[in-house]
Design a protein that fits this description.
332 residues, alpha/beta, Rossmann fold, Zinc Finger, Delta Prime, domain 3, 16 helices, 56% helix
């Protein structure tokens, strides 16, 4: 498998050189904020910075080797002096736990303590205000690494205390070509390029069984919506959703469905032929459905899942709304 460093060198050369300069000159900072568009490898870069801080066998570029015991511990979140939180899971007591743990002496040989908060914009404001006090009093042995898909949604007081790393956004052409280079289907390349801006992930994912499974479920969902919306609810809740056995598969399904509704709107408004699911998109555009309502229902479902709402209840409501019902289950 390709090292993340090689991917970074090929796709984010400015970020790669910035890290080389910082580590070779020993001018790393106490806090980083990695900003990228949805799908960009912000977490991969956060982990790579963490590895580079504690690596036992650094390469000639002064960055992580990615294969030593310490690097692997970071990758598997088993490094004792490393704490990871998703933004939505950062509660006030989580910050208390972080402060308590990092008031202790470092255990590992590198003598540096690292915490990563992935997608910090999703963290509650009360937790961020508490974290800010911790961030304002940095010590030399503690490094914070934050990631975001929405820089405008991050508290300015946090942004101002971090070294900002902006990731390059790939063009549609670059994303599609990257997938075609591994012999992906052109339709699949166009669909996935709309959903994710992570070139490396897309290249690895587009030929996978997971992608094929989610695509098939999405296609069935669209066909039932067009031909038999009442059966759509039964199919998704009894056959479709049970096959989506991981949260990332559910997220991909919702992203695919949303992309299809947007494509149908573009087809209806400008007669722009879709480059994926052509027949289904055309039928959706001609069916006089309220596609905007369906997109809003998907966006609401995504937000509710971020807030740790009951997954099954969120999806139940979503499919009722997509099928043309109201939240009480009645057909409009």
């Amino acid at each position: 498998m390709q090292q993340f460093k090689e991917y970074l060198k090929a796709t984010q050369p400015i970020v790669y050189q910035t890290l080389i300069n910082a580590f070779s000159k020993k001018k790393t900072t106490h806090a980083y904020l990695i900003n990228g568009t949805v799908g960009a490898p912000v977490l991969g870069i956060a982990e790579f910075i963490a590895q580079s801080l504690i690596c036992e066998n650094k390469s000639s570029d002064h960055l992580a080797c990615e294969s030593c015991d310490a690097c692997q511990k970071i990758k598997n979140q088993k490094y004792i002096d490393y704490i990871f939180y998703k933004g939505e899971d950062l509660k006030r007591d989580s910050v208390d736990h972080l402060q308590k743990e990092f008031n202790k002496s470092a255990v590992e040989k590198a003598n540096v303590k690292i915490y990563v908060i992935h997608l910090i914009e999703k963290a509650p404001i009360s937790s961020l205000n508490k974290l800010l006090k911790f961030l304002e009093e940095p010590t030399s042995d503690i490094v914070a690494i934050f990631t975001t898909y929405s820089l405008m949604s991050v508290l300015p007081t946090i942004v101002s205390r971090c070294q900002l790393i902006n990731l390059k956004q790939f063009s549609q052409k670059e994303l599609i070509q990257g997938m075609l280079d591994v012999n992906a289907d052109l339709e699949d390349a166009h669909l996935l390029a709309l959903i994710s801006n992570d070139l490396n992930k897309n290249v690895e994912f587009v030929l996978s069984d997971d992608f094929k499974k989610v695509k098939a479920i999405t296609k069935n969902c669209l066909n039932y919506l067009i031909t038999n919306p009442d059966y759509l609810i039964f199919y998704m809740l009894n056959q479709g959703v049970p096959q989506l056995d991981a949260m990332n598969q559910i997220e991909l399904f919702l992203d695919m469905l949303q992309a299809c509704f947007f494509a149908a709107i573009y087809y209806h408004v400008g007669n722009n032929e879709s480059l994926f699911f052509k027949e289904e998109i055309q039928q959706l555009a001609d069916a006089h459905m309220d596609l905007y309502d369906k997109i809003m229902a998907i966006m609401t479902a995504k937000q509710e899942m971020i807030s740790n709402a009951n997954k099954n209840l969120v999806l139940d409501k979503l499919f009722i709304l997509i099928a043309g019902g109201d939240i009480c289950g009645k057909r409009k």
